[in-house]
Design goal:
Layout: H1 15-21, H2 47-54, H3 69-82, E1 86-90, H4 93-104, E2 110-114, H5 119-131, E3 135-139, H6 144-150, E4 157-161, H7 173-182, E5 186-190, H8 195-198, E6 208-212, E7 226-230, H9 232-246, H10 252-283, E8 289-293, H11 303-309, E9 316-321, H12 324-334, E10 339-340, E11 350-352, H13 363-370, E12 376-380, H14 386-406
Parallel strand pairs: 2-3, 2-4, 4-5, 5-6, 10-11
Antiparallel strand pairs: 1-7, 6-7, 8-9, 9-12, 11-12
Helix pairs in contact: 1-3, 1-10, 3-10, 4-5, 4-9, 10-14, 12-14
Length: 407
C-alpha cells in the first residue's frame, strides 16, 4: 500500500484545502491529527494472509521500507496538491533524483539534461550515470536550438530544473516536453524552487516531478525528505520496484513532519514570495549590485516565459556583487539577521555563496558557463518582517563597502 491506496478528496478542493486535508486516513481511534506509525513491520492474522500479501493478492502494509500509513498520507496529500496520479516518498531529495533516474534507465540509454543543475544533480548526470553505461548530454536549458539538436535522435530521459539553482533560469517546459516525447524520452522536472503552488510541470507536458521536501514543503529546517510523482503506471511498474529493493525509504516521523509542513505551505509561500519580490527590487537600486536575478522582475532574461509557466516569482533571489568573492564574503559576514546556510525554503531567511558551497565541485569552467560567478549570492527569503530583512541587507552592503574601502 502507498499513496494511491489512501483516500482522496471527493470534491475538487482548492490547493489550500488539499494541503490540509488531502490523503487524510484516520485510524479506528479517529484522531484529529494524522497518526504517526513508528513501526518497522506489520503483523498478519495467519500465515496464509502473509503469503497472499507477499504474492500481491492482498493489498495491505507489509514493511515500512515498502510502505507505511503515515508515509502514504504524505504521498497522497502531495499527489493531490500536484495533480499527479501517484507519488512515492524518499529519504532525501537527492534520493528522489537518483531513484527516478536509475529506476528508468539502463546501460545503452541516453539522457539529455539542462546544464544548470544543483551540484549533486550535476554529479549524478555527469559522473554517476556514465559509470552504468548511460550516455549523458548537457545543453544550455534556455537555448531552444541546443534542445532541438540534442533531441534530434532517440533518448530515454530528459532531466532539468526550472527555475534553476542558483541563477533562476527558466526553461520552456511545453517546448522541451514536445521535443523529448518525439525522441521517445520521458521528462523529469526538479520543481523545488517553484513548489506545486507556483508551477505544475505535469500540466505543462512533463512526465515526472521531483522534490526535495526538505525545502519549502517542510519549510522550517527540521528534517530531510524527497518525493517523486507521476503516472500510476510509471510509479508502480518502474519506480516502486527500485524503491522497494534498494530501500531509500522516508521515515514515518519525517513524513509526519512533512505533513505538518504541507498544511502551512499555502500560507507561508505567498508571504515569503512577497518579501522576495521587495528585496529583489531593493537590491536593484544598490550600486554595489551588478545583477539581480528574480523571475518576476521584468529584467529577468526569461521573465515572460516565467510568468506564463509560474504563478509568481518564488522565494529565491540571486544577485552579483561587484568585487567577486571578497565582496560576497564581506557581505555575508556582515549580515546580522539573515543566516549563512546552504538550505533554502526555510521560515528563516538564509544566504549562501554558491561558488564555494553548493556548486563548488562542478569546477570553475562549468560555473562560468552557468553564470555562477565568485560574486554571486543566493538569498532564500523567509517569514521575517520584510522591513527588517531589507534593513539587514542594506547594512551588510554598507558594511561590506566600508570594509573594502578600508583595505
Amino acid at each position: 500500500m502507498a499513496a494511491d491506496d489512501a483516500p482522496t478528496p471527493k470534491r475538487q478542493d482548492r490547493p489550500a484545502t488539499l494541503a490540509v486535508r488531502g490523503g487524510l486516513a484516520r485510524s479506528p481511534w479517529m484522531e484529529t491529527a494524522e497518526a504517526l506509525f513508528l513501526t518497522s513491520g506489520f503483523v498478519y492474522d495467519s500465515a496464509a494472509e502473509a503469503e497472499a500479501t507477499f504474492l500481491g493478492e492482498v493489498a495491505r502494509f507489509q514493511y515500512s521500507r515498502f510502505g507505511n500509513p503515515t508515509v502514504a498520507m504524505f504521498e497522497a496529500r502531495l499527489a493531490a496538491l500536484e495533480g499527479a496520479e501517484a507519488c512515492r516518498a524518499t529519504a532525501t531529495g537527492m534520493a528522489a533524483v537518483a531513484s527516478a533516474l536509475l529506476a528508468h534507465l539502463k546501460a545503452g540509454d541516453r539522457v539529455v539534461a539542462s546544464r544548470a543543475l544543483f551540484g549533486s544533480c550535476h554529479w549524478i548526470v555527469s559522473t554517476l550515470l556514465p559509470k552504468f553505461g548511460i550516455e549523458t548530454v548537457f545543453v544550455d536549458g534556455t537555448e531552444e536550438a541546443q534542445w532541438r539538436e540534442a533531441l534530434a535522435r532517440p533518448a530515454q530521459a530528459v532531466f532539468l530544473e526550472t527555475p534553476s539553482n542558483p541563477c533562476l533560469e527558466v526553461i520552456d517546459l511545453p517546448l522541451v516536453a514536445d521535443l523529448a516525447h518525439r525522441a521517445g524520452a520521458i521528462v523529469m522536472v526538479d520543481n523545488v524552487f517553484a513548489t506545486p503552488l507556483l508551477q505544475r510541470p505535469l500540466a505543462l507536458g512533463a512526465d515526472v516531478v521531483i522534490y526535495s521536501a526538505t525545502k519549502h514543503i517542510d519549510g522550517q529546517g527540521r528534517c530531510l525528505g524527497g518525493a517523486v510523482l507521476g503516472s500510476r503506471a510509471w510509479i508502480e511498474e518502474t519506480l516502486q520496484p527500485f524503491l522497494r529493493n534498494t530501500g531509500p525509504a522516508l521515515s514515518p516521523f519525517n513524513a509526519w513532519v512533512l505533513l505538518k509542513g504541507l498544511e502551512t505551505l499555502p500560507v507561508r509561500l505567498p508571504a515569503m514570495q512577497a518579501s522576495a519580490a521587495a528585496i529583489a527590487d531593493f537590491l536593484a537600486t544598490r550600486p554595489e549590485v551588478s545583477r539581480v536575478l528574480y523571475p518576476a522582475r521584468a529584467d529577468h532574461p526569461q521573465h515572460a516565459l516565467a510568468m506564463r509557466q509560474m504563478a509568481g516569482g518564488g522565494t529565491i533571489v540571486s544577485f552579483d556583487l561587484a568585487g567577486g568573492k571578497p565582496a560576497a564574503f564581506r557581505f555575508l559576514d556582515a549580515l546580522r539577521l539573515i543566516d549563512i546556510s546552504n538550505n533554502l525554503g526555510d521560515a528563516k531567511s538564509l544566504a549562501t555563496h554558491p561558488a564555494t558551497t553548493t556548486h563548488q565541485r562542478i569546477g570553475p569552467v562549468e560555473r562560468a558557463r552557468l553564470g555562477i560567478g565568485d560574486g554571486l549570492v543566493r538569498l532564500s527569503i523567509g517569514l521575517e518582517d520584510v522591513r527588517d530583512l531589507i534593513e539587514d541587507v542594506a547594512q551588510a552592503l554598507d558594511a561590506a563597502r566600508a570594509a573594502a574601502a578600508a583595505e
